[in-house]
From TrEMBL:
Pfam families in the record: DUF4440
SUPFAM superfamilies: NTF2-like
GO molecular-function terms, A-Z: isomerase activity
Keyword Cell inner membrane: no
Signal peptide (from-to): 1-31
Domain DUF4440 residues, every copy: 71-179
UniProt xrefs under Gene3D superfamilies: 3.10.450.50
InterPro entries according to UniProt: DUF4440 (IPR027843), NTF2-like_dom_sf (IPR032710)
Protein name per UniProt: Ketosteroid isomerase-like protein
Length: 200
């Protein structure tokens, strides 16, 4: 005997809705385990597949640890955008390290302080986080993404750079999170712009 024949007629539609809701709820955890984001196929068959960049906060598998790191990185970026070099320095641990593209390492809070005295009115540094990963002990992790900077040289010509960064975070003794290391690499020059000499 069908199950619906045992249920009064006025309850059939609510039961169908309840069944659909239960099926949806039971399949969501499986959908979250389907794997990494899809890749786009390059026209060049020898080129490696390129990962599709999406907003990390929209991913169904973001863990609480990743959310914490993403929030830290966003607050770090907004603070630097507003207060400049002073804000950049303030986020570092005492034994922090800065590795900038083509420059010597900057080791320790005191050296970082001396190296980050820019005013946000004359030098703008912003970045967009693309991902985060928390370590198994939940006291260390990293974020990564893209950065853009804008400045002007002594003659007023714009100096714009962009590239990729990685920031390593660690929880210090008082429970606060600080930057243990920040590293960046500028994008490669555009084709044809590498060795062009100025015209006379």
């Amino acid at each position: 005997m069908p199950l619906f024949s045992l249920i009064p007629h006025q309850y059939h539609l609510p039961m169908v809705r309840l069944t659909a809701l239960l099926c949806t709820a039971l399949t969501l955890p499986l959908a979250a385990q389907l794997g990494p984001a899809p890749t786009t196929q390059s026209i060049d068959p020898l080129a490696p597949p390129r990962q599709v960049i999406t907003n990390p906060l929209n991913q169904p598998t973001v863990t609480p640890g990743q959310l914490l790191l993403l929030d830290l990185d966003l607050r770090f970026s907004k603070d630097v955008e507003t207060r400049g070099g002073k804000a950049f320095r303030d986020w570092f641990a005492l034994d922090g390290v800065v590795l900038n593209n083509g420059k010597a390492p900057v080791l320790g809070f005191r050296a970082i302080t001396a190296d980050t005295d820019w005013d946000p009115k004359t030098y703008q540094l912003t970045w967009t986080t693309e991902g985060a990963q928390m370590g198994p002990s939940n006291d260390m992790g990293f974020t990564w993404g893209r950065y853009v900077s804008h400045a002007k040289d002594k003659t007023g010509n714009p100096i714009d750079t962009a590239g990729r960064y990685i920031t390593v975070w660690k929880k210090i003794e008082d429970g606060k999170w600080k930057v243990a290391m920040d590293a960046s690499a500028n994008d490669a020059p555009l084709a044809g712009s590498c060795c062009t000499l100025p015209k006379p």
